[in-house]
Design brief:
mainly alpha; globular
Length: about 170
């Protein structure tokens, strides 16, 4: 009888591990797709429009990840995310406008560098937000209730990781 119970619990653990791995693959693919879209948004000529588009894509991605993990879509959290993104991006829009002016002095190459920076930074931010919510859903919905300094550190870590991974998302065949 004890052997039968351990066999059943072993099967349950294997099944839940398979489900988690399937969800993780789906979530990674979802994040990748939105990262590519965010890179495309970086090609928009206006930094303010870029921020609005990337924020809208992040909200859509959060909802898509919630569906992957069969969580209810966190509407209050998404509203909070929109407000924080838009308010927090005011500084980056200001810096972006000033850096664009600086790069304008170098014909063609300056604009290409500026657009590349916007694409990579938006895509890396998308990657980091996706990984935060992936971790949140995999933890049973408890990660975002963690200490803010922990969330900031995790975001910075995933943002840096995203800057390295973004080019590989475009070069996949």
């Amino acid at each position: 009888m004890i052997v039968a119970q351990s066999d059943v619990s072993l099967n349950i653990n294997e099944d839940s591990a398979e489900v988690l791995e399937k969800e993780r693959r789906e979530a990674d693919n979802c994040i990748k797709n939105y990262v590519i879209l965010a890179m495309g948004a970086g090609l928009l000529p206006s930094a303010l429009v870029n921020v609005v588009v990337v924020t809208a894509l992040e909200v859509k991605m959060i909802g898509s990840l919630a569906q992957v993990y069969e969580f209810p879509v966190p509407k209050k959290l998404m509203l909070y995310k929109i407000l924080i993104s838009l308010i927090g991006s005011l500084g980056s829009v200001y810096v972006s406008v000033n850096s664009r002016l600086a790069f304008k002095g170098v014909p063609l190459l300056g604009h290409a560098v500026y657009v590349g920076m916007m694409s990579v930074s938006g895509a890396a931010a998308m990657y980091a937000v996706g990984k935060i919510f992936q971790h949140h859903y995999e933890s049973g919905g408890t990660f975002l209730s963690s200490d803010n300094s922990l969330l900031r550190a995790y975001f910075k870590e995933k943002y840096e990781e995203g800057k390295g991974r973004v080019p590989s998302f475009v070069n996949t065949k």
